[in-house]
Amino acid sequence: MHEVYVYDAVRTSFGKLGGALSGIRPDDLAKIVISATVERVLELDPTEVDEVVFGNANGAGEENRNVARMAWLLAGGPVSVPGTTVNRLCGSSLDATIMAARQIAIGDAEVMLVGGVESMSRAPWVLPKTERPFPMQNLELVNTTLGWRLINPEMHTPWTVSLGEATEQLREKYGINRERQDEFAAQSHAKAASAWTAGRYEDLVVTVPGADLDRDETIREEVTVERLSALKPVFRRENGTVTAGNSSPMNDGASAALLGSAAASTKLGRSPTARIAGWAAAANEPQDFGYAPVEATNRALAKAGIQWSDIQAVELNEAFAAQALACLDAWKVDPHIVNSWGGAVALGHPLGASGTRLLGTLAARLRSEGLRWGVASLCIGVGQGLAIVLENVATERKQ
């Protein structure tokens, strides 16, 4: 088996629903990060890319025709390079990374371009076809932006509750109160704003032409626990605690990463930043999707041959503050090492792009802070979780 490395990672700033990126097609957002990756790695001959693998959670709109392939062609990439698109909902681009890493590990590839994209603003309404022609009843448009739709009536009803209701159930199960959720959310905004001000994202984020957006659009420095505590719960239930303020927003954006073998260093003209040391998936009851990162991450650590005591940086996608807190409690991890440059509650969560956003941020954190081991993990709708363990190449060489 060959070692697998991260050589580079980029992303767009993330726009809010209906915001600065809403006028840009998702395949064009993906094109932007692909073009940026090729331009940043000057020694890279695009014909040397073995395959492009992108994640996308929707796929019902303008990105429907295999967005990985479309974006590569839009970016002017050689037609000889194949592409495939992965849908594992929120974990799509991290799954794309794992698929590409497997190809490199077994020797089927040396250089892989991975990433993900989502335009939740441009996700279409769909009108299902009728089973019989000329129906007399009214037909209903279905919103494809987020969550369950067109549900199979045979699906177990408790599995198909909304993501918010599932999170309410999860926080009741694990005793996560409203105050902790709002404190977590406020810290996410504060850390994200501080990271942008400190220039942490300068080398990670590329400009989107035609968009007036110089940082992630949903960061709010003025957010306080007091302001968050005044928000009403989004989901109609007694004693609800999940609000728009302690949940990730809906967003538009794209991210990408360049993976390769050790030998790829010669082709790319640069050294890698991090080694992919392990990865894993896990699944549980669909309504407990928010807790699935717990087992996925534990499995990934075991495959990497390390323990939680070795981990110095965690990038956990903050789908909801409640589910993130439930995971952190289960791991008993120091919260100060988690999402220290901000998390999805502040930065945003364009579903298909979040996985490689986490991967790129984690690699950058390890490098800039001189840390050795880190883990990136996400919860995924319908009860799944994914995780990847990274080792800082610079510290690896010193050990």
How are the secondary structure elements laid out?
Blueprint: E1 4-12, E2 15-16, H1 26-40, E3 51-55, H2 67-74, E4 83-86, H3 92-105, E5 111-119, E6 125-126, E7 142-143, H4 163-174, H5 178-197, E8 205-206, H6 225-229, E9 251-260, H7 264-268, E10 274-283, H8 292-304, E11 313-316, H9 321-331, H10 344-347, H11 354-369, E12 373-380, E13 384-392, H12 393-398
Parallel strand pairs: 1-8, 3-4, 3-5, 11-12
Antiparallel strand pairs: 1-9, 1-10, 2-9, 5-9, 6-7, 10-13, 12-13
How would you describe the overall organization of this protein?
This protein has helices at residues 26-40, 67-74, 92-105, 163-174, 178-197, 225-229, 264-268, 292-304, 321-331, 344-347, 354-369, 393-398, and strands spanning 4-12, 15-16, 51-55, 83-86, 111-119, 125-126, 142-143, 205-206, 251-260, 274-283, 313-316, 373-380, 384-392. By secondary structure, it is of the alpha/beta class. The chain has a domain at 4-121 and 249-392: Thiolase/Chalcone synthase (Peroxisomal Thiolase, Chain A, domain 1, 3-Layer(aba) Sandwich), CATH 3.40.47.10. The strands form two sheets. Strands 1, 2, 3, 4, 5, 8, 9, 10, 11, 12 and 13 form an eleven-stranded mixed beta sheet that branches. Helix 1 (26-40) packs across helix 2 (67-74), helix 3 (92-105) crosses helix 11 (354-369) and helix 8 crosses helix 9 (321-331). The protein is globular. The two termini are 22 Å apart.
Task: Quickly describe the structure.
With 399 residues, this protein is an alpha/beta fold.
* CATH superfamily caption of the domain at 4-121 and 249-392: Thiolase/Chalcone synthase
Low-confidence stretches: none
Shape: globular
Number of helices: 12
Number of strands: 13
Strand content: 15-25%
Mean pLDDT: 96
Outline the biggest β-sheet.
11 strands, mixed
The multimeric state of the shown protein is single chain
| Proportion in helices | 25-40%
- Report, as a whole number of angstroms, the end-to-end distance: 22 Å
Radius of gyration: 20 Å
Order of helices and strands: EEHEHEHEEEHHEHEHEHEHHHEEH
CATH T-level topology of the domain at 4-121 and 249-392: Peroxisomal Thiolase, Chain A, domain 1
CATH class membership of the domain at 4-121 and 249-392: Alpha Beta
CATH architecture of the domain at 4-121 and 249-392: 3-Layer(aba) Sandwich
Which structural class matches the secondary elements? alpha/beta
